[in-house]
Specification:
Mean pLDDT: 91
Number of domains: 2
CATH superfamily of the largest domain: Fido-like domain
Shape: elongated
Helix content: 55-70%
CATH architecture of the largest domain: Orthogonal Bundle
Radius of gyration: 23 Å
Number of helices: 15
Strand order of the largest sheet: 3-5-4
Low-confidence stretches: none
CATH class of the largest domain: Mainly Alpha
Strand content: 5-15%
CATH topology of the largest domain: Fic-like fold
Largest sheet: 3 strands, antiparallel
Distance between the termini: 53 Å
Length: 330
């Protein structure tokens, strides 16, 4: 029996875009930006969650989503608040689950739709149409075909992920998943989560890039690319759309990096210049190296900002005021 092959064609435009994206991904990785700035990772994760649920008509603002994730009380529909909590919980697991596993997909769908639908983690058992607003884009395959379609899709994913560029196969998967529409709810959120997870398997930096924000910004184009692929009978239009959005996401991330670097305190930079990586320094040592006399000045202008940015860590984190405290550049 032949293995299922999703219809798509890799052309020169795709290859050129993939090469450009790969170069930018390397630039971002070399900055170690997200490794050193946990607050930036958190902000981008919130942006991803907000955008992905907003595409599905969730009305909570970015600030409200931020508040929900930070455990604050927000006035809004309970189901929309639950959607945000679920999506955040699912995104937090990227890097811990296997995106090439169909069983993991069902498990994550259970998390994504927890308390929202009775069939969380289970394939739909009824006919379903895919809508753009009030317009039905297409009728999804009947429920009896979903198990075999999904099994074939994951067999293809596992058989070809070493021979096709991740930027291509993750986009093909995204389109095919939307086409199959395997669940009664949460298909769009799961499709975007899964492409991010597949890209993160290639390069972990994608865990912290808000690709979903660019999809949300160009939401009409997103649906149009899906429709064009339906008409074309292959995922080529959708692949090109996703490559364009990934490229834009990387451009924004590089701008973010340059902005962060430009606004870094001269005090923090001076502190980093006198410290070696992974070497513990006492406060007294840093006073000497920096030519300072005031411990209060050291704490306020150097240590506290560097700790807040995640550029240095405490050697004794559970005792921040210890007289034996040390600081380590990471």
């Amino acid at each position: 029996m032949e293995t299922y092959q999703p219809p798509f064609n890799v052309n020169n435009q795709m290859l050129m875009m993939a090469a450009e994206i790969s170069e930018k991904t390397g630039q971002i990785s070399s900055f170690h930006m997200f490794a050193s700035k946990p607050y930036l990772r958190h902000i981008n994760r919130i942006r991803s969650v907000h955008a992905s649920v907003a595409i599905e008509a969730n009305s909570l603002s970015l600030n409200e989503v931020h508040s929900v994730i930070d455990g604050k009380t927000v006035s809004g529909p309970w189901n929309e608040i639950q959607e945000v909590k679920n999506a955040y919980n699912a995104y937090e697991l990227i890097g811990e689950f296997d995106p090439f596993s169909l069983e993991e997909l069902k498990k994550l769908h259970g998390i994504m739709t927890d308390s929202l639908i009775s069939s969380a983690g289970k394939f739909r058992n009824h006919d379903e149409g895919v809508f753009q607003g009030d317009v039905c884009i297409f009728i999804a395959p009947p429920p009896r075909l979903i198990p075999v379609h999904m099994r074939n899709l994951f067999i293809w994913l596992n058989n070809t992920h070493n021979s096709i560029h991740p930027l291509i196969y993750s986009s093909v998967y995204h389109y095919e998943f939307v086409f199959i529409h395997p669940f009664s709810d949460g298909n769009g959120r799961m499709a975007r989560l899964w492409q991010t997870a597949l890209l993160s398997k290639w390069n972990p930096v994608f865990q912290y890039l808000p690709l979903e924000s660019h999809i949300h910004k160009y939401q009409d184009d997103y649906y149009n690319a899906i429709s064009e692929s339906h008409i074309a009978g292959n995922s080529d239009p959708f692949i090109l759309f996703m490559l364009e959005k990934i490229n834009q996401t990387l451009d924004q991330a590089l701008q973010q990096i340059r902005k962060e670097s430009a606004f870094r305190s001269r005090y923090v930079q001076k502190l980093l210049d006198v410290m070696e990586y992974d070497v513990p320094y006492t406060g007294e040592q840093l006073l000497t190296f920096l030519g300072l006399k005031s411990k209060a000045n050291l704490r306020k202008n150097y240590l506290i900002p560097a700790l807040a940015e995640g550029l240095i860590v405490m050697g004794i984190p559970d005792k921040p005021t210890s007289r034996n405290q040390t600081y380590i550049k990471k």
